[in-house]
Amino acid sequence: MADTPAVPLTIEGTFVLHQIFRFARAEWRQQEVFHCNRIVQRATEALASMEEGSKDGNPNPTAIYSMIGHKGDLMFVHFRDSLEDLRRTELAIEQLELTDFLEPTHSYLSVVELGLYESTAKTYAALAEKGVAPYSPAWDAGIAEVLTRQSAAMRQRLHPEIPSAKYICFYPMDRKRGEAKNWYQVPLANRQRMMYDHGQIGRRYADSVKQIISGSIGFDDWEWAVDLFADDPLVFKKLIYEMRFDEVSAVYALFGSFYVGLRVHAKDLRQVLAGELPSNPVS
């Protein structure tokens, strides 16, 4: 295995865009009521259509969150089949008059990703036993067969719906590449072991939190994006705190800013912009 690639296999699915905005409330208050009503009505109709997503194939929905804290007021999370579809969504939102009162504060681009550490080790070992040289035509064919099979088996996980949970916790993260600790120089078998142990913690929380991991290497400033969805926000703290004691996080992880929001729907937009929250925002 010493001569086999160090890169684990991955499969990718839905593209993801997070958009975070600050609402220009002072300017909004200066508008005539009828003008605000018209703006909200048009935005509500457009966002409601995005919430419904695609009727055929992958779900491709949009979700709206009222943000908690000073980092923004609204967050739109879009799941789409392609970067072109994400850009079309961006352009559609930019055409809304409401965006005259929304200041972008952050965005994040990624793609739903599943790492195949266990399959990678087995596949590399099987090909090596057959004497297949890395990156030879036979090697590439063997890898392609595995990726195709895994993509079909994991289709639902690669193209998920946005969970209907009440709260979201979104944050980006990296693996360390410093002089003392460098994740990318750790042998594949060791990384596989650590990722398995790391995943076991998440599995214990499977009944209370839904996790969607997306890769952003080459797309954005960090290497991965994590979205956690739960009806009890305390589970975010408990899960992430417990993972901090795990080797892969304690030794090799770096975390970006955390964003927490409350799920609302397009039909609730008028209330949210008026400084209120719907009584049952996720119904």
Please tell me about this protein's structure.
- The chain is α+β, with helices and mostly antiparallel strands.
- Helix content is 39%, strand content 26%.
- It contains 10 helices and 9 strands.
- The protein has an 8-stranded antiparallel barrel.
- A hairpin with an 8-residue loop joins strand 6 and strand 7 (224-230).
- It is elongated and about 75 Å long.
- The model has no long low-confidence stretch (mean pLDDT 93).
The fraction of residues assigned to DSSP E strands is 25-35%
Taken in chain order, the helices and strands follow as: EHHEEHEHHHEHEEHHEEH
Straight-line distance between termini: 52 Å
How is the main sheet built? Answer: 8 strands, antiparallel, barrel
Which percent bin holds the helix content? 25-40%
Q: Structural class of the secondary structure composition?
A: alpha+beta
Number of helices: 10
Q: Could you tell me the mean pLDDT?
A: 93
Task: Draw up the topology in text.
Elements: E1 10-23, H1 25-29, H2 33-52, E2 62-68, E3 74-80, H3 83-94, E4 102-115, H4 117-129, H5 137-153, H6 155-158, E5 167-175, H7 188-204, E6 210-215, E7 224-230, H8 234-244, H9 247-252, E8 253-255, E9 259-264, H10 269-273
Antiparallel strand pairs: 1-3, 1-4, 2-3, 2-9, 4-6, 5-7, 5-8, 5-9, 6-7
Task: Throw out a few tags for this protein.
single chain; 283 residues; alpha+beta; eight-stranded antiparallel beta barrel; 10 helices; 9 strands; elongated
